[in-house]
What does this fold into?
Amino acid sequence: MQASDRFNINSQLEHLQAKYVGTGHADLNRFEWAVNIQRDSYASYIGHYPMLAFFAVSENESIGRERYNFMQKMLLPCGMPPEREDD
Amino acid sequence: MYLYNLTLQQATGIVAAINGNFSGSKVQEIVVARGKILSLLRPDDLGKLQTLHSVEIFGAIRSLAQFRLTGAQKDYIVVGSDSGRIVILEYNKEKNVFDKVHQETFGKSGCRRIVPGQYLAIDPKGRAVMIGACEKQKLVYVLNRDTAARLTISSPLEAHKSHTIVYSICGVDCGFDNPIFAAIELDYSEADQDSSGQAANEAQKHLTFYELDLGLNHVSRKWSEQVDNGANMLVTVPGGGDGPSGVLVCAENFVIYKNQGHPDIRAVIPRRADLPAERGVLIVSAATHKQKSMFFFLLQTEYGDIFKVTLVHGDEGVTELKIKYFDTIPVTASMCVLKTGFLFAASEFGNHGLYQFQAIGDEPDVESSSSTLMETEEGFQPVFFQPRGLKNLVRIDQAESLMPIMDMKIANLFEEETPQIFSLCGRGPRSSLRILRPGLAISEMAVSQLPGVPSAVWTVKKNVNDAFDAYIVVSFANATLVLSIGETVEEVSDSGFLDTTPSLAVSLIGDDSLMQVHPNGIRHIREDGRINEWRTPGKRTIVKVGSNGLQVVIALSGGELIYFEVDMTGQLMEVEKHEMSGDVACLDIAPVPEGRQRSRFLAVGSYDNTIRILSLDPDDCMQVLSVQSVSSPPESLLFLEVKASVGGEDGADHPASLFLNAGLQNGVLFRTVVDMVTGQLSDSRSRFLGLRAPKLFSVKVRGRPAMLCLSSRPWLGYIHQGHFLLTPLSYETLEFAASFSSDQCAEGVVAVAGDALRVFTIERLGETFNETAIPLRYTPRKFVLQPKRKLLVIIESDQGSYTAEEREAARKECFEAAGMGENGNGNVDQMENGDDEDKDDPRSDEQYGYPKVESDKWVSCIRVLDPRTATTTCLLELQDNEAAFSVCTVNFHDKEYGTLLAVGTAKGLKFWPKRSLAAGFIHIYRFLEDGKSLELLHKTQVEGVPLALCQFQGRLLAGIGPVLRLYDLGKKRLLRKCENKLFPNTIVTIHTYRDRIYVGDIQESFHFCKYRRDENQLYIFADDVVPRWLTASYHIDFDTMAGADKFGNVYFVRLPQDVSDEIEEDPTGGKIKWEQGRLNGAPNKVEEIVQFHVGDVVTSLQKASLIPGGGECLLYGTVMGSLGALLPFTSRDDVDFFSHLEMHMRQEHPPLCGRDHMAYRSAYFPVKDVIDGDLCEQFPTLPLDLQRKIADELDRTPGEILKKLEEARNKII
It folds into this structure.
């Protein structure tokens, strides 16, 4: 890699995308975007204990179960990915 | 509008708890995180939990861990929070604070997916800590000691793995080999790419060991193996010399022992017999008990059952894993096994418990073992058990928790001086209505009737060095009664006191003699029984007395003061006389400073509205040192000395200081600082206490001098964690009081009221509220007050439970089965069982929880409750799977039935996989028997869940999904009159005022509507631009609404004045404009005028004034069980002062766990016009020089700042 490449906008973006999960890019499709939002939301619910408790009350489950359910949902938060058109 | 935020009751729920020796002594202590609060608890000798220290950290604590360096005696605390920093704290015993030892930044702040803080794991030997995020990132910090034995922390080592979800991490005990951390990981990268779903089905959780190579300073993935896909938690198994090492993997229905190079040992978790087959059993909390010779684990399931897990191990590793039923207690967030034989159970909802171990589950019970694990075609063979009463644990104390507050209303139903806060708390069988009253709880020890109506009471010791009081002396209008304190309290006549006269004062004087002052003289009773009597000159009588053990001043009628001192031989000698200008209203002598002969100050209150400080020094005896004029004649005076202290119990340094308190006849308590040298008075504060002139008495609280003020209700003034607090006691009006100390009761108070003598102690110091709890049946949802009838109507509903009859039938069946199985020897036992069962009945559900059924089954009831007697006058269980969600009282305009009750219900409501319901209903009930019972008039089917109901112009407004509809009362059903279907999602709140309707949407904040009677039209004329997930709302004024959202923000929106005027003046009511919306909504937009991040989901808002005659503030209750207030500022000066103080506090005193204060309060939206009183109130805990520095910047003295803070608090409570 040439020295100038390090500063070009694309490589900076790539660096960001590698470092921060969920950083978008120009070719991001609707599904990928939604998946990121959902995972971020679940992580936020898990991190904010009062919110977890709020959900636990409304679903009448224990907080531990509620946390586990949210973790499990992080695997496929938006269902199956769409079929890819290329390759 | 500017608001001052103050937390009145700190959060009572617990997020995480750890135990260890944090103060460095052998005492077992517990550190708990309550959301944004970190506190240190200690069970005392009596097994009562005491809070030693509590600090708000202005951030969300997500995880806690403790570690100890090898050979050290003291545990450190590691905090994982939302600050993007790892913080290591040490408890400083001397100053009673948490000291920040290290704070290392590793990422962005906030609870983010890939920023560590969610999980913490400790190397059992205290050499390293791992901090992890939900996804990808894990960092390892090496902990060590430098040459001065201080803790050092390395730079972070990465153990990241991208596209990986982390379920749990823990340290692996491998003795002094390289530290290893274990993690449950799930890789989602393939599932995200594969559209056939095959990869997602095959996605497999892995248990991965990360090894920290201390030599290379590098973390590597050492070992990774597939693990059960239901795995959710890891527990460290002791290793090194103590055990086999490795980890317990808790998975849904299983516990699996795993270690590198070791076969899996798996056992099933026993299931409750009544659990539906499709429900799993998940472990939610774990505790380890480790002794030299053995160890075991206590694992609690999501239903509350605790299992004892033991491992059989030898040279060849673990051969068997046994899971034995231990006991059932309410579901916990964390459990701590203390070395002293206690179990601290931090309940996830409701009160926390401290249990004592009676046994460690050695007796036979239902057990599942890895060696008897049976695999069949349908999977592993389950093991069943039936929960039973506590066998191994016994509860010895509980800590109250309001978590979660579901609804709250403030009203003065009991016609007391201050209103009561009615809050619905808890969940399922542990729910309750709690009535909170501002004030300290007291516990009454004895009440005894006296022969007459006493006027005063004192207690005396026989000797200065005695620990306990010897006599209680009660004065009547013409006699004095002496009671001696021993095993019992009985009347004596050999005490030497004159019993034929009333007394004015009784006290210990000198080292060992007693003094009785009566209207005609002073009686001095020496230790050997000799009696010296001093008589008043002429016909004059003594009216007032002040004394302090070595000095006595009496005031004669007419205004003459006579001053006595105890000389070297113990004689009481007259020293000086002084003529005052008029009658003396009250007097008091300051306590003798340590190491001195006498005190220098005498305070004299006169009827000319002045208080004078006189000198008692021999060289300027009876000289007036200073004069203070007050608003009303003083009735009672008391000097309160605060000894110099460095740190100590309350956490801050204090120079010695002397306060003069005066109770004035207009009911005001006046408090001022006395200069210890010159006697000058400064820094005066006053506070209205009640309708009667406060009488002041000196008492002891935790061994320190405190003040009891008796006005129309009693108050206690004492120092708690660096603050001087003046708090009302929840007790009746008292006439006279004295401190009381005996064998049974070390720090009590004896008081007279009416013709009774009362002995009581003051409990739970430092708390703002005391509570009365009334148990409820299901999770309470909402309630309405009926102020006239003084009744409450509460709706309760629970998802996934059996109805009351089904539960009763199931229980009978089960007890019969158990009775036959266990003791088939006849009816006698069964009868006894039956009796026991009846007694245990209400308790048992509280302990075990309701049995679970399918999630689309609901139980619900409507209850009419008389809070005064705590009796339920009517309880209607809803039938057919209906659940109540909203309630309101409504007066229809035809007035045929008077006030009616409307209840909104849903039948067969399901949230999953899609929100659906069989039907919604609005029930209309009429009140019978003066409101004590209900009768159904009719019910009307509607198409959705009526989540909001409200009376409006003699009709009923209902929010049913996105529809706002106006109903009128018909004979057989409600009649639709008008509706508006244009709301975005679901209506959750409705408030009305005149012809305006304020509608709250679940996701889209407020909509302001108007009803036009002529055209019979409902239309939205204004809405909010910010999507807010409303959880609570309150109507503030015509144009203003207060709301709270799911993310923990409180905000106010206001319709701009010109828009409001325009709408009111427009003959069409803005209707023409309404037809042309703006930004996909209403034509007008409200403005956000206040915004504040509370950091906790606010579930209820209410405007109220908690002090008589005080201004109103907005009170909020939260899910974590805290109560707070937002007080509007009335002057611009105060706003300036507090915003500058807040700014300096932010700079000089950043929050403990590394979150930036401003960023925290602006977590979702920038904070607007709210000053954080919780931060300002940390000012007294700062070091003195820092206090002075901030005060200088503000052009004030630290005293003035404290006064301001106190004033602000006193305006609220």
Notes: Residues 26-76 of chain A form one domain. Chain A touches chain B through 38 residues (CB under 8 Å). The radius of gyration of chain A is 18 Å.
